[in-house]
Every structure is written in structure tokens, then in C-alpha cells.
């Protein structure tokens, strides 16, 4: 039972590196979502010409994991209280977001965030939207931190515990 979700959590390199090793994740792709133009380039997004978020498309096996577990991981690696900023990355392309293509997922995400919000007096600013568009990022952005192990990453990849990892990946 394959399912999909798209997460935006700042620079997509770290989000991709983290989620590709999560138990039950079949595939990840870096890309650009929910913006104003077709086929944006990295340069367009960085310059603000394209209003897309840097995102990671995640295909997962619903028999091995579920959206709530993936949301646990997502909220472990993002600061849900900062608008258009994660780590040292600042700009609309670095906004946090959860983009769904299944209406059942919208309710799961809303319930999850409502429970999280009830525990905090700070406003959670993670966007929750239907996935309107997704464009795969350039090849050099795919698996970037695997290809460039000393590359920049605002995420502590050590937060993924051994028992949460996909064996063999």
C-alpha cells in the first residue's frame, strides 16, 4: 500500500537525507512545490521569481509506517514556530509546509497539529495545503548530501534513531 506526502522544512538537502533513511520510506525526491510558475529552476526559487517551497516528495509503504509516524519525524527536525526560516535558511522558499494529495491526510495532519498546538503557547506556522504542483529539482540536488557528505545541512541527521531506520538503505 504505497502512499505519498510532501514536506517542506527549510533546505531540502537535509530533509531528503533524513527521510530517505526512515523506516517504511520507499523513495524521496527533492523539488519545488506550490508556487506560481511552471518548471522553476533553483535560481528562480532563490531569486524569488518563483514562489515555490523547497520540498521533499516522500513515497512510503503504509504497511510499514503511517503518516503520524512521518509527522513525528517531521516535527523532530523543523522549528514549527518560525515563518519562512529554518536554521540559517531564510526566505519564502524555506517555509515549513505539509502538502497532501489525499483528503484523508488533511484531517490526520490537522489533528496532529491541533494536538501539538494545544501543548504550546507559541503559534505553529507550518502551512498545511493541498499539493497544487510539484516539480522535481535539478539532478545535482537529488541525494545531495550523499554525493557531498560535507555539504551544508541545518538538520541534525543524528536525530534518526537506529530502530527507526530502513534496513539495507
UniProtKB/TrEMBL annotation:
<dbReference type="GO" id="GO:0033744">
    <property type="term" value="F:L-methionine:thioredoxin-disulfide S-oxidoreductase activity"/>
</dbReference>
<keyword id="KW-0560">Oxidoreductase</keyword>
<dbReference type="InterPro" id="IPR036509">
    <property type="entry name" value="Met_Sox_Rdtase_MsrA_sf"/>
</dbReference>
<dbReference type="GO" id="GO:0034599">
    <property type="term" value="P:cellular response to oxidative stress"/>
</dbReference>
<comment type="similarity">
    <text>Belongs to the MsrA Met sulfoxide reductase family.</text>
</comment>
<dbReference type="Pfam" id="PF01625">
    <property type="entry name" value="PMSR"/>
</dbReference>
<dbReference type="GO" id="GO:0008113">
    <property type="term" value="F:peptide-methionine (S)-S-oxide reductase activity"/>
</dbReference>
<feature type="active site">
    <location>
        <position position="11"/>
    </location>
</feature>
<dbReference type="InterPro" id="IPR002569">
    <property type="entry name" value="Met_Sox_Rdtase_MsrA_dom"/>
</dbReference>
<dbReference type="GO" id="GO:0005737">
    <property type="term" value="C:cytoplasm"/>
</dbReference>
<comment type="function">
    <text>Has an important function as a repair enzyme for proteins that have been inactivated by oxidation. Catalyzes the reversible oxidation-reduction of methionine sulfoxide in proteins to methionine.</text>
</comment>
<feature type="domain" description="Peptide methionine sulphoxide reductase MsrA">
    <location>
        <begin position="4"/>
        <end position="154"/>
    </location>
</feature>
<protein>
    <recommendedName>
        <fullName>Peptide methionine sulfoxide reductase MsrA</fullName>
        <ecNumber>1.8.4.11</ecNumber>
    </recommendedName>
</protein>
<dbReference type="InterPro" id="IPR050162">
    <property type="entry name" value="MsrA_MetSO_reductase"/>
</dbReference>
Amino acid at each position: 500500500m504505497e502512499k505519498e506526502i510532501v514536506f517542506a522544512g527549510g533546505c531540502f538537502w537535509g530533509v531528503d537525507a533524513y527521510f530517505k533513511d526512515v523506516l517504511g520510506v520507499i523513495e524521496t525526491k527533492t523539488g519545488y512545490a506550490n508556487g506560481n510558475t511552471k518548471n522553476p529552476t533553483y535560481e528562480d526559487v532563490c531569486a524569488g521569481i518563483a514562489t515555490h517551497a523547497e520540498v521533499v516528495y516522500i513515497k512510503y509503504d503504509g504497511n510499514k509506517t503511517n503518516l503520524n509516524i512521518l509527522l513525528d519525524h517531521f516535527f523532530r527536525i523543523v522549528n514549527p514556530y518560525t515563518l519562512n526560516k529554518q536554521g540559517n535558511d531564510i526566505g519564502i522558499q524555506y517555509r515549513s509546509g505539509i502538502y497532501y494529495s489525499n483528503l484523508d491526510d488533511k484531517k490526520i495532519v490537522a489533528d496532529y497539529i491541533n494536538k501539538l498546538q494545544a501543548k504550546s503557547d507559541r503559534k505553529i506556522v507550518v502551512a498545511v495545503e493541498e499539493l497544487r504542483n510539484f516539480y522535481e529539482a535539478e539532478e545535482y540536488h537529488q541525494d545531495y548530501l550523499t554525493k557531498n557528505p560535507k555539504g551544508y545541512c541545518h538538520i541534525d541527521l543524528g536525530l534518526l534513531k537506529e530502530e527507526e531506520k530502513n534496513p539495507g538503505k
